[in-house]
Automatic annotation (TrEMBL):
InterPro entries: Dihydropteroate_synth-like_sf (IPR011005), IspG_bac (IPR016425), IspG_bac-typ (IPR004588), IspG_C (IPR058579), IspG_TIM (IPR058578), NO2/SO3_Rdtase_4Fe4S_sf (IPR045854). One of its GO terms (molecular function) is 4-hydroxy-3-methylbut-2-enyl-diphosphate synthase activity (flavodoxin). This is 4-hydroxy-3-methylbut-2-en-1-yl diphosphate synthase (flavodoxin). Residues 300-402 form the IspG C-terminal domain. The gene is ispG. Its EC number is 1.17.7.3. It comes from Magnetovibrio blakemorei. The lineage of its organism: Bacteria, Pseudomonadati, Pseudomonadota, Alphaproteobacteria, Rhodospirillales. The keyword Iron applies. It catalyses: (2E)-4-hydroxy-3-methylbut-2-enyl diphosphate + oxidized [flavodoxin] + H2O + 2 H(+) = 2-C-methyl-D-erythritol 2,4-cyclic diphosphate + reduced [flavodoxin]. Converts 2C-methyl-D-erythritol 2,4-cyclodiphosphate (ME-2,4cPP) into 1-hydroxy-2-methyl-2-(E)-butenyl 4-diphosphate. PANTHER family: 4-HYDROXY-3-METHYLBUT-2-EN-1-YL DIPHOSPHATE SYNTHASE, 4-HYDROXY-3-METHYLBUT-2-EN-1-YL DIPHOSPHATE SYNTHASE (FERREDOXIN), CHLOROPLASTIC.
Amino acid sequence: MSSLSQQAAPNRHQTVCVDIDGVKVGGGHVVRVQSMTNTDTANIDATVAQVAALAGAGSELVRLTVDRDEAARAVPYIREKLLAQNVTVPLIGDFHYIGHKLLADHPACAEALAKFRINPGNVGFKEKRDSQFLSMIELAAKLDKAVRIGVNWGSLDQDLAQSLMDENAKLSEPRSPQDVTREALVQSALGSAERAEQLGLGKDRIVISCKVSEAPELVNVYRLLAERSTYALHLGLTEAGMGDKGIVASTAALSILLSEGIGDTIRVSLTPEPGAAREREVRVAQEILQSLHLRSFSPQVIACPGCGRTTSTSFQELAMDIQNYVRTRMPEWRTAYPGAESLKLAVMGCIVNGPGESKQADIGISLPGTGETPSAPVFVDGEKVATLKGENLAKQFQEMVEAYVQKRYGGA
């Protein structure tokens, strides 16, 4: 893969860089992957375990719910235990309704966090909104903390939305309610960010987001944000959904925006299946970025879907074995063989596309399909180098992959 694995794609929307405890977001840096725990933050051990798992999967920022005193008190202990495990991922505090009070009452929590997440729609209501927003922003500025001003259409500032609706009703050609809601989202985010700057928070400490649940609407909102500002942008559907639906919806929305150069950090907000690992949302985000050639995280394994020519499951089993093998080896390869994450492998199932795809990969194998000669040619850098046969074929190919990684990336 090209050097795009190490740098942002060209023609990206230019935004201000925000340094979040060493993780640089925006300013031409690579698009960052983040996630959020779903443990009770007051449960220190469970939260530490999940943060460590998310960071181990590749999450570069992890957000925690800070919703009450017990959660706020737990945050510094969570940070301490993570550091003892050499887990240095920046922690983000997710605050709603009483964030101003929790930060004031628990200064150790504020110190332990790398970033505060503030929702303008519920930071406070009526006459309290400005003072409570002010107290959080002033504290962030004092402690030099980054802030994400995150607007959600499910908790939009109703005063602003109603004001825009009233203005729209007076127009000779009123816009649709959807257009007005979109405008309210953007105005809420940008107006709050500008207010934060007036209160002393630097533009290089502000990330903004406007999250909705529908992919087309997310694209429309972020195009407006990109046109009107240079703040670092966090992308993601606010509720993507479960399983395939959540993955497809997130991929549809984020891929369009990222391909247009919009977005500095992303989260895939999957509804977890009961008992399923939280890390899946991290892997999906990585796959989106890797598929767009914006980042490289792990070697790509290309495999055909199978058809009537491939009635044997051998190539499917080998593709799974190789996928699991590279994931298992990647932690060591990342350290010992820099660049191995950009490796491209092919495991194909018959003679139709098998040899051609295998030649295009760095290393590839074309297994025999139904009725074909029971032999599997292996191609390295476009050249046929071996033909494998027999029951030990999978192990032989793994050994060839390992040797290729050591030879190609060992001198990096």
